[in-house]
TrEMBL record:
It comes from the Bacteria. It comes from Streptomyces nanshensis. The chain crosses the membrane at residues 21-40, 60-80, 101-125, 137-159, 166-187, 223-242. One of its GO terms (cellular component) is ATP-binding cassette (ABC) transporter complex. One of its GO terms (biological process) is response to antibiotic. It is found in: Cell membrane; Membrane. This is Transport permease protein. PROSITE patterns: ABC_TM2. Keywords: Antibiotic resistance, Cell membrane, Membrane, Transmembrane, Transmembrane helix, Transport. The keyword Heme does not apply.
Length: 251
């Protein structure tokens, strides 16, 4: 517990002192919200008749939270391993679980702030997002989504040996997934084969769950399915992350 506390405090201090990372973690999703919100302001999706903001806001929020989780832990693990920090930690009675749990708690905190800030901006009259009465259900969906994407980030960070490699691999995963999962473009307007392909991507279910909770874009059953699938992704990716975790580039 003392190791976990020390790592959590160190991670928090390092993150808050890096003002550039801190700024872009929260600003990046908001930039997409502003751009898409202004472009599609007042427009509706022809297939469903719903305003674009109902699709855009939950999707961009989901992508932003998942993106932060993947990049955050991926870069840290790569840097700690490259600088032999993980090797030094290994020489102490600190288990892998304490290292990953400290990053997990930090990722949850960042995701919570991201979500609150993002929704607050989306509710402004310029964007016009209207919250559904089931919005609290977005909390468990986001927690499960962050868990799954954090595990994916651990896998990326365990294999990548340079910052450029982390960025390349993470972007290759997250950017195509954003388009294929409906974060930037409504799935209802996509070809059938793309909608089918999206069903094997965790971001699709994070989008569906957050959309159903925030905007009423789905039934309670849909939100439950999204949570169940995200939990499955979290378990599978978490098992792979533990299996592939490396204390140094030599092991």
């Amino acid at each position: 517990m003392s190791a976990y506390t020390a790592l959590s405090q160190a991670g928090y201090r390092a993150y808050t002192r890096d003002r550039t990372t801190l700024f872009f973690t929260f600003a990046f999703p908001l930039i997409f919200l502003v751009v898409f919100g202004l472009i599609f302001h007042g427009q509706t999706v022809e297939e469903s008749g719903k305003p674009y903001i109902n699709y855009i806001a939950p999707g961009v929020l989901s992508w932003g939270v998942g993106n932060a989780a993947v990049f955050g832990v991926g870069f840290v693990l790569m840097q700690w391993r490259r600088d032999d920090i993980l090797r030094l930690i290994r020489m102490t009675p600190t288990p892998v679980s304490a290292v990953l749990a400290s990053r997990y708690v930090l990722a949850l905190g960042i995701g919570a702030v991201q979500a609150v800030l993002f929704v607050a901006v989306a509710l402004l009259p310029s964007f016009g997002l209207q919250l559904d009465g089931r919005w609290p259900l977005a909390v468990p969906v986001l927690v499960l989504g962050i868990t799954a994407f954090l595990a994916l980030g651990v896998i990326v960070g365990s294999y990548a040996k340079t910052p450029e490699a982390v960025a390349a691999v993470a972007n290759c995963l997250m950017i195509p997934m954003a388009f294929l999962s409906g974060s930037f473009f409504p799935l209802d307007a996509m070809p059938g084969w793309m909608q089918s392909l999206s069903r094997v991507l965790p971001l699709r279910y994070l989008n569906d769950g957050v959309s159903g909770a925030l905007t009423g874009g789905g039934t309670l059953s849909d939100i439950g399915v999204a949570c169940a699938v995200l939990a499955g992704f979290a378990l599978v990716l978490g098992a792979v992350a533990l299996k592939t975790f490396r204390w140094s580039d030599k092991s």
